[in-house]
Amino acid sequence: MKIITGLRLAATLLLAALILLVPAWIALPFRQPMRTRIMTYPFKFFSYLLRWVFGVRLTAEGHEHTRGPLTRNHLFISNHLSLADTPLLLSLSPYPFIGKKEVLRVPIIAFAGNIGGNLLFDRADPEDRKRVQRDAIRRIREVSSIYLFPEGTRSKTGEPKPEPHWGLIWTAWQENIAVVPIAIFGSEKIIEQLTTRVWIRYGQPLLPADFPTKEQFATACWQRVRVMFDELKAAAESLIPGSAVQPSQEPGSAR
């Protein structure tokens, strides 16, 4: 399995060089809105191919709601199980991410991601967290919606953490930015298996105006992630016909 994993990682870097480098250099001279626009489809295609490279059988629901008016003024939040979570989400709806600065060590992909609009910060620096929150709100309003893993790190138990980092979700309430909850189930097994079945569900946006306080809003957002995760887990484990999430029929977004 180690040999297969090594070959998969090598294929990942090769695909990144072939698919992402040229668009990234083309986008570099432009301002951020155009950079993000240029990198959208290369990242979606690259991420879709990675699903094949890593043997992922993806069942997805609800990502059709992320198009149209949701291309701006929305924060997407998801539980975090694996390094594969990012390309899985990008293969469905390719928006920039907020992430830790350690991803800069990943060759080619980090460079292209920065060009595409990813926001990185130092987790050990509270001021840098505040800086990225300010930048994220501006990007969400002016450029595109953004993904966030509010847990900060991958779950070690396979379950969403009881409480994530609330900061940006609180800020979203204060700035009247809707939050779209997302649940991922099964992705933690991708690296160690030849083929893996993964389920993803996007929920309907939660609106700040429907909640009197930022705490109630943030709690409701994360609770929705956890409820959807439990639903996906139950459907996956029961394997009762008709109980599992149905795959989208849109090209490039189902199995």
From TrEMBL:
Involved pathway(s): Lipid metabolism
SUPFAM superfamilies: Glycerol-3-phosphate (1)-acyltransferase
One MF annotation (Gene Ontology) recorded for this entry: 1-acylglycerol-3-phosphate O-acyltransferase activity
Limits of the Phospholipid/glycerol acyltransferase domain: 74-187
Domain of life: Bacteria
Keywords from the UniProt entry: Acyltransferase, Transferase
One GO-annotated biological process of the protein: phosphatidic acid biosynthetic process
Alphabetized PANTHER family for the sequence: 1-ACYL-SN-GLYCEROL-3-PHOSPHATE ACYLTRANSFERASE (PTHR10434)
Protein name in the entry: 1-acyl-sn-glycerol-3-phosphate acyltransferase
Protein's organism: Chloracidobacterium thermophilum (strain B)
